[in-house]
Amino acid sequence: MNNTKAIDLNAHALSWIGKIHYDFGFLVQKAFHENGIDLSKEQWSVLKRLHVNDGQPQNDLAFITHRDKTSMTRLVNTMETKELVIRKSDENDMRINRIFLTDYGKEIIQKVQPIMYNLIPAVQESLNEDEIETLITALKKVKSKIAEIAEE
Length: 152
Known about the structure:
- The chain has helices spanning about 15-35, 40-50, 60-65, 70-80, 105-125, 130-150; strands at about 55, 85-90, 95-100.
- By secondary structure, the chain is mainly α.
- The two termini are about 30 Å apart.
- The model has no long low-confidence stretch (mean pLDDT about 90).
């Protein structure tokens, strides 16, 4: 006999984090579409990381964007087809693929940044600064606890 109690998912923070993540992703896609930008939020995630550090190894991008190697390869293939990035073999180690922004990829970044800079504050406008700070502090604690459990 199972003694576990039914979990009310609406009473758990992690459930709400997942819902917000999903809803915000939908909002981002809608904003891109309304502005005529053919880009997924996953592609944006890669572009913004390359904008900070262009030419990263594909495996590093997979790690920092929390993707497995196969899904990262598919994502980069799609982005190459859209001419957002180009893949080049590392000069010193041909087994390593480095990903670089194209000029078109840089143009898309310039178009998307203002959308994101407007969208994020709009979503948070119902919170005051103290609430935002408290929320970030609480989320950092949850992230730290997850990391601690994962290490066990």
